[in-house]
Amino acid sequence: MPSMSSAFAARVNNRLARHFCAVPYRLPANNPMVSFTSDDIPQSAASAGAPMLEEYGGRGTFYISGGLVGQWSGHWAGISTDGILELHRSGHEIACHTFSHKRALELDAAAMAAEVETNRRYFCALDPSIKLENFAYPYGQGSVSRKPLLGSLFRSSRAILPGVNHGTVDLQFLRASPLIDRYIDRAGIERAFDEAAATGGWLIFYGHDVVEKPSPYGCTPRMLRDALEAAARRKMPIVGVAEALRRAGA
């Protein structure tokens, strides 16, 4: 468990990372869309969450640490290699965490590059057609010192700062809102979609498990369906992060 001093340093570094814009990009103002992303990932995100996205014609992005595959997290069973391959073959995006799930702040540039390369090799060994184009900061904690390196390795890096991405954004610190029972309800979901529609922006949700009694980091199938219905009513495309970037011309 991090010490108080290391936890404080992580908060400060994450706050600085919000304001140092490593890869500024101006998003089109008339292209509202939504991405559903899952971190780590629990088996239920693939077995329950992914088919729900598919029902609505959508695909998701799954940020996975190779070192967590098939492991028990303390809250959920981690996805299996077969589950990863099924996601990939169904058109979902497999994306990158650090291989060991270490925070960006814990890694110097060489260690971060090694973590990313180890993860790339892990997924390439599963299926050479899996290309890790996008990254999410483990625990959502960005690092101002690692952003330039990540910008050279990935099209984007996603954080967990709530809000809609619109106007000029930092592609190495994309905003994402929690689709997590303890942090949002149906009204909050509707407000997020209203903001995306009004700004023509890109709404990203993040979460973990999708079960009837979720962990503190997950949601119920009902909550996920509420969000999918909100997108459908607004005719808002449900796309993975790589596809959203393509649509935005990034």
Sequence-ordered SSE layout with sheet pairings:
Layout (H helix, E strand, L loop, with lengths): L3 H16 L4 E3 L6 E8 L2 H13 L5 E4 L16 H9 L3 E4 L12 H18 L7 E3 L10 H7 L2 E3 L9 E3 L6 E2 L7 H14 L2 E6 L13 H13 L7 H7 L3
Helix pairs in contact: 2-7, 6-7
Give a quick rundown of the structure.
The chain has 250 residues and is an alpha/beta fold. The protein has helices spanning 4-19, 43-55, 81-89, 109-126, 147-153, 186-199, 221-233, 241-247, and strands at residues 24-26, 33-40, 61-64, 93-96, 134-136, 156-158, 168-170, 177-178, 202-207. It has a single domain, classed as Glycoside hydrolase/deacetylase (TIM Barrel, Alpha-Beta Barrel).
Descriptive account of the structure:
It is a single chain. With 250 residues, the chain is of the alpha/beta class. It has one domain: Glycoside hydrolase/deacetylase (TIM Barrel). 39% of the residues lie in helices and 14% in strands. It has eight helices and nine strands. A five-stranded parallel sheet has the order 4-3-2-9-8. Helix 6 packs parallel to helix 7. The chain is globular and about 45 Å long. The N terminus is likely disordered.
The backbone outline, from C-alpha atoms, is globular
Give the ordered list of helices and strands: HEEHEHEHEHEEEHEHH
The structure class reads: alpha/beta
Gap between N and C termini:
38 Å
Rg over C-alpha atoms, rounded to the nearest angstrom: 17 Å
- Determine and state the CATH class: Alpha Beta
Poorly predicted segments: 3-8
Number of domains: 1
CATH fold descriptor: TIM Barrel
Quick check: average pLDDT?
A: 92
Name the strands of the widest sheet in spatial order: 4-3-2-9-8
- Could you give a short account of the major beta sheet? 5 strands, parallel
Q: How many H/I helices?
A: 8
The CATH superfamily is known as Glycoside hydrolase/deacetylase
Give the proportion of residues in helices. 25-40%
**How many beta strands in the DSSP annotation?**
9
CATH second-level architecture? Alpha-Beta Barrel
Strand content: 5-15%
